[in-house]
Amino acid sequence: MRHDDNLTTERPTFVTHLECSMTGERFEADRLHGLSNVGRPLLVRYDLDGVRGEMTKDALAGRPADLWRYRELLPVRDCADIVSLGETATPIVPLPRIGAAMGATELLVKDEGRLPTGSFKARGLVMAISMAKALGVKTIAMPTNGNAGAAAAAYASRIGMEAVIFCPADTPEINVREIAAQGARVYRVDGLIDDCGKLVGQGAKERGWFDLSTLKEPYRIEGKKTMGLELAEQLDWKLPDVIFYPTGGGTGLIGMWKAFDELEAIGFIGPERPRMVAVQAEGCAPIVRAWEEGARHATRWEGSHTIAMGIRVPQAVGDFLILDAVRASDGFGITVSDEEILAAVDRVGREEGLLLCPEGGATFAAYAKARADGRVRADERVMLFNCATGLKYPMADHSRTIAKDEPVDWASL
Ligand SMILES: *Cc1c(COP(=O)(O)O)cnc(C)c1O
Known about the structure:
The chain is of the alpha/beta class. The chain is about 35% helix and about 15% strand.
């Protein structure tokens, strides 16, 4: 098997049309689209009977382990439009020591930090940029808290597409520099990600940029959907009991939920679903608040703050899609504090050797809480999401110094 087989073998494609996620209104495929006429995300629809005949479990078994193995359920028609930096399948890493200490039967982490640019934003952006290329886009623009901008910059630069990125001024330094190092123009803005989004919207009108904001074009969901396809396949088509997802714009949660429906339609899984848990920070929890209030839409969270930048999203255009999935799955929303996040990152790093990002730490902290209050049982198979490598974030300095020319007190080392 050649490592790039998925990128070079033409396969039949099955996109039939796009559909407004709110009203069901139909839109033509193979055209450039933003939001629907009512300002909501568009979802890509497939001829799933056709997919069923082509993408069999046997056919999958012979393909390299990257996200392009699921081509029949992806929107890119032509191999020539695939933009790739090697979107490898990410491992499911168990936490056996912590799991045992907590009495858990199976505590698993999907470690997305292995993807290009060090985060799962690569899944969404590789698809969005490939489709933007297919549909003739010259310049993309997007707001970011860091990781999305980095992935967009990398894939755009790879094909000579211009990328203009706006981030809050307090975005982690490494992200801002990474975006520029990967060839994009990056601007720091004295506001939050939705303020950056407004600038992108204006720039799209003034300069004709294509707006790649979360859920404002249809294909990032399709890329993030591969997390659901991949984890199902890795678990031999048996989904976990509970998924803890660090929720910002919610693309991944919405995408996985869509993936499970499509997998059921092609006969790979039954009607069982994991309980989907939306994890947010105490300082920015619009989705959890709406879930608690029983509302279908979430209002903007004022004064957002948390160290987990990836989930510092005061308002999400796909709010109802997140909330619908959480409710339909009998899941819940839950918040954790920054102190709990830091303690979680520290514990998982020290005891399991797995360096989580703060958002990943949030899912572990939320799991611990949900176990304590009984919402998740010890015997349930649980999947936490670590969405970026911990190496991109500031780390506490616990080092000590030693003077090589002084006598060493060995007993104290
Ligand atoms: C973007 C991001 C999230 C949130 O993902 P959504 O699918 O947009 O909700 C979580 N963690 C990290 C590290 C991120 O970069």
